[in-house]
Design goal:
The protein has two domains: 69 residues, Winged helix-like DNA-binding domain superfamily/Winged helix DNA-binding domain (Arc Repressor Mutant, subunit A); 43 residues, Dna Ligase, domain 1 (2-Layer Sandwich), CATH 3.30.1490.190. A hairpin with a 5-residue loop joins strand 2 and strand 3. The protein is 34% helix and 18% strand. It has a three-stranded antiparallel beta sheet. A three-stranded mixed beta sheet has the order 5-4-6, with no helix packed on it. By secondary structure, it is an alpha+beta fold. Helix 1 crosses helix 3 and helix 2 packs across helix 3. It contains four helices and six strands; from the N terminus they run H-E-H-H-E-E-E-E-H-E.
């Protein structure tokens, strides 16, 4: 876990544990799932705070499920979007050049600068159909 002002200062034992648990997990996981992986060694509130800070620092991806729950995972550093299976949660990173062009166009049309966006596409994977 790289410590920056965005991640909240010095790397505590708890913060390192959360980062390592997430790094060792495949796919997206909720704060509760990470908390369970840690066997109660780190308080749930600390897990939430750490995941929020890591997401703000761009060290993990955070997305919301269709029911609004925040889930997290370590992802590649390039800008990408997610294709997510509603059944099993399988997630594929996808690039969307058309989305990027559209986002820039809309921002320019309305005079916005420093625009960012997220896009999650939900469907059913071949295994769950």
């Amino acid at each position: 876990m790289t410590e920056t002002p965005a991640t909240g200062g010095r790397p505590t034992r708890q913060r390192r544990a959360v980062a390592e648990a997430l790094a060792g997990a495949s796919g997206f996981h909720s704060a509760q799932e990470i908390h369970e992986r840690l066997g109660g060694a780190v308080g749930l509130a600390t897990v939430y705070r750490t995941l929020t800070r890591l997401a703000e620092a761009g060290e993990v991806d955070m997305m919301r499920t269709e029911d609004g729950e925040a889930i997290y995972r370590r992802c590649s550093e390039s800008h990408h979007h997610h294709l997510v299976c509603r059944g099993c949660g399988r997630t594929i990173e996808v690039e969307g050049p058309a989305v990027e062009r559209w986002t820039r166009s809309i921002a320019e049309e309305h005079g916005y600068a420093e625009v960012s966006h997220t896009l999650e596409i939900f469907g059913t994977c071949p295994s769950c159909r």
